[in-house]
Specification:
With 100 residues, the chain is an all-alpha fold. It is 83% helix and 0% strand.
């Protein structure tokens, strides 16, 4: 048995010999965990990027609306910060469901 055999068995590309079925089943579990871990990591990165892009857009929008008016900028900043905190809460709750 070689490491390539394990990958082929775990991915389901090749059926293992009867004598290797127990090892193949364990390898499949590890293979599936790795795939799910990669999917979760991709989701973490995608949501993080989305929140960052949205934050940058929101900040630019606030600055455009305030047009140098310090009082309006202060009021809009409070709203912006609350929105960012809410996005962070959503992000934390999402990944707690993943168990990470």
């Amino acid at each position: 048995m070689q490491n390539n055999d394990l990958t082929l068995w775990a991915s389901g590309a090749v059926a293992p010999r009867r004598s290797d079925r127990e090892v193949a089943a364990q390898a499949k579990g590890i293979y599936d965990q790795a795939r799910l871990g990669a999917y979760k990591a991709d989701a973490v990165l995608a949501l993080g990027a989305h929140v960052m892009e949205g934050t940058a857009q929101l900040d630019a929008h606030r600055l455009g609306l305030a047009r140098g008016n310090e009082q309006l900028n202060a009021v809009l900043s409070v709203i912006e910060l609350d929105t960012i905190r809410q996005a962070q809460t959503i992000q934390r709750q999402t990944f707690n469901r993943f168990g990470i």
